[in-house]
Amino acid sequence: MKAKKNKRGITVKKGCISCKWKMYDGEGNRICTLFRNNEKGYCNKWRMSKALRFAGTPYGNIHTKPYLRYAMEIAQDEQKWIAQGYNITLTPIEEMRKNYLKEHKTYNIDF
After folding, report:
1. Would you call 48 helix, strand, or coil by DSSP?
2. In angstroms, how far is the first alpha carbon of the chain from the final one?
3. Distance of CA 51 to the CA centre of its chain
4. CA–CA distance, 51 with 20 (Å, rounded to integer)
5. Of 2, 48, 81, 93, which residue is the least packed, with the fewest Cβ within 10 Å?
């Protein structure tokens, strides 16, 4: 199988699974949005998906488990209130991060 390196030098195998044109049908089968088939392999229209293009870049951060738990609990509480009929505004992620940083040093894992 052929491969290509992304911008950070990570090798990505060419195939439908790594292609930007893939999507999934209602049954979980991978199909090509260009050709509407479910062939495996790759064709001359293959383009690396955005997620794989930026894999390994500093654009994303790896968050600590306590921060992820904190953000998940807030989101779950808000969803419960909405399900109970309360008309609330969801907390923006930037506000969650700011509030978390008031009590903690960071929400990212340092390497």
Report:
1. strand
2. 32
3. 7
4. 9
5. 2
Q: Which amino acid is at 49?
A: S
Please give the residue that has the higher pLDDT: either 44 or 62. Answer: 44
Distances (CA, A) of 24 to 28, 31, 37, 51, 98: 5, 6, 11, 16, 36
pTM over 0.85, yes/no: no
Q: Which of 92, 104, 95, 102 is nearest to 67 (CA)?
A: 104
Residue type, 97: R
Instruction: Give, for 24, the enclosing helix (H) or strand (E).
Output: strand 22-24
According to DSSP, the β-strands at 11-13 and 3-5 are: antiparallel
